[in-house]
From TrEMBL:
Keywords associated with the record: Glycosyltransferase, Transferase
GO molecular function annotation: glycosyltransferase activity
Organism per entry: Niabella ginsengisoli
Keyword Ubl conjugation: no
Residue stretches making up the Glycosyltransferase subfamily 4-like N-terminal domain: 11-108
Statement: the UniProt record of this protein carries the keyword Transferase: yes
Lineage of source species: Bacteria, Pseudomonadati, Bacteroidota, Chitinophagia, Chitinophagales
InterPro entries registered for this protein in UniProt: Glyco_trans_4-like_N
Its EC number(s): 2.4.-.-
Protein name stated in the entry: Glycosyltransferase
Pfam families according to UniProt: Glyco_transf_4
Length: 115
């Protein structure tokens, strides 16, 4: 399968769990695509079948915080369509869940199963 995983890349429960899940799936022969704003800290060495897609968050002077959610949704759509993903695992709740909802609506076809 071609699987996308959206997670926080930092040390901590959800980032570590998502990265280890992706590494285990890759070892079983699945193609795993991490979608996040920086390379996951637990993904420090080359692992076959693992790909990293950086969410390029622009700075925007109007907002105090960059528009991560919209940029994440856009990156998800791009990775889903470019890599023909079968499954997108969204790890953690907000903003990942709402970004996944936007990406799913934008794709309008069964590009991937969202979990």
């Amino acid at each position: 399968m071609r699987i996308g995983i959206v997670c926080y890349p930092t040390f901590g429960g959800s980032g570590v769990l998502a990265t280890e899940l992706g590494k285990a799936l890759a070892q079983k022969g699945h193609q795993v695509h991490f979608i996040t704003y920086q390379q996951p800290v637990r993904l420090s060495a080359f692992v076959p079948n693992i790909f990293y897609h950086e969410v390029q968050v622009p700075t925007y002077p109007l907002f105090d915080f960059p528009p991560y959610e919209t940029t994440l949704a856009s990156t998800m759509v791009n990775v889903i369509k470019t890599n023909n993903l079968d499954l997108l695992h969204v790890h953690y709740a907000i903003p990942h869940a709402s970004a996944a909802y936007m990406a799913k609506k934008y794709c309008r076809r069964k590009a991937a199963t969202f979990l």
